[in-house]
Design brief:
- This protein is of the alpha/beta class.
- The longest helix is centred in the last third of the chain and has 18 residues.
- It is built from 5 helices and 5 strands.
- It has a 5-stranded parallel beta sheet.
């Protein structure tokens, strides 16, 4: 059982993917009250700079309009106030170049989005068990 609410910021531009992620979170008992969405890297960085309380975890899509996830990752890791936040790369790309770059630029985990909803629910469950229940997070 989660002892406190984990604040999650999700950068995802695809509205259908957002809805599926929300549903997978609900299936895993994760409150959407603790979840915020950004539609691109620019919006993500603006939301992070404007928040009083920073998120505990960022889930970051790589392929977004305006500022993509690769650029956003670099900017977050270059910012002393944000660089401690764990970043889960959660994207459709399984290209070795993207995976390598994500880890080189400071991504903590790289997960390719599953194509089936049941697999998405399982994946979110794994994320919940590790990041919410096992890993120690800085507040």
């Amino acid at each position: 059982m989660i002892s406190r609410s984990i604040q999650i910021m999700i950068a995802e531009d695809d509205l259908d993917d957002r809805l599926l992620i929300e549903d997978a979170f609900k299936e895993n008992g994760i409150s959407l009250l603790t979840t915020s969405f950004a539609g691109d890297g620019d919006e993500l960085l603006t939301l992070l700079k404007d928040r009083v309380e920073l998120p505990d975890i960022i889930m970051l899509d790589l392929n977004m309009p305006k500022k993509d996830g690769r650029e956003a990752l670099k900017e977050i890791r270059a910012n002393n106030l944000l660089k401690h936040i764990p970043i889960i790369i959660f994207t459709t790309s399984n290209a070795e170049e993207d995976i390598r770059l994500a880890y080189q630029e400071g991504g903590n985990t790289y997960i390719t989005k599953p194509s089936l909803f049941s697999e998405l629910v399982d994946t979110v469950g794994i994320i919940k068990r590790y990041w919410f229940e096992k890993a120690a997070l800085v507040h």
